[in-house]
Amino acid sequence: MTAFQTMGPLSVLHAFLNVSRWRISADKGMSVRPDTINLYVLETGGCEGCAMEVESLCGSAFALEQYGFARVTDPADADWLLVTGPMGRACVQMLERVWNAMPAGKSLVAVGACAVDGGMFGPNYATLGGLKALTPVRRAIPGCPPSPQDILVGLQRLAEG
Question: Are strands 107-111 and 80-84 parallel, antiparallel or unpaired?
């Protein structure tokens, strides 16, 4: 008799729903921030690998809020703008609109190789490459794609200065 047959089908479902067992906890080398930094994510295309990794931060395995970050859906509420993917020519106006809608004190963060310098999507008729083509990139989280934990650690390091 297998463990699945002994426990029953609902036990397996219960184990998956017990997220505290699987969640990366704050005591594993990650500090908890007292103030919340609001993040607005702009996906500019590409393979969407980095965008999926950022999305997984908002799930139950990574408690983004536990580390002092919150994802917002309105740029007017955001402190930091996270950009994933290469900078498509069609996305430049959208980036400008989102950036201008954000309040003073805002920061731009490139997530992944494509957002920084275009990665495998170099400058061509459709893309400018990465954000480097538009502005100096001072805050970046490298990787292709960076893992959710790498993104979280990168955000914490950027928040610390």
Answer: parallel
Domains of the chain: 33-160 (3.40.50.12280)
Pairwise CA distance, residues 159 & 52, whole Å: 22
Query: Exposed, middle or buried: residue 158 (CB in 10 Å: 0-12, 13-18, 19+)?
Result: middle
- Short-list 119, 107, 111, CA closest to 146: 111
Instruction: Write out the chain's pLDDT in tens, 161 residues.
Output: 554 455 555 555 555 555 444 444 444 555 555 689 999 999 998 888 889 999 988 877 777 888 899 999 999 999 999 999 999 999 999 999 999 999 999 999 999 999 999 888 888 888 888 898 888 788 999 999 999 999 999 999 999 88
Rounded to the nearest 10°, the torsion over CA 90, 95, 97, 101 is 160
Residue (of 65, 62, 59, 105) closest to 81 by Cα position: 105
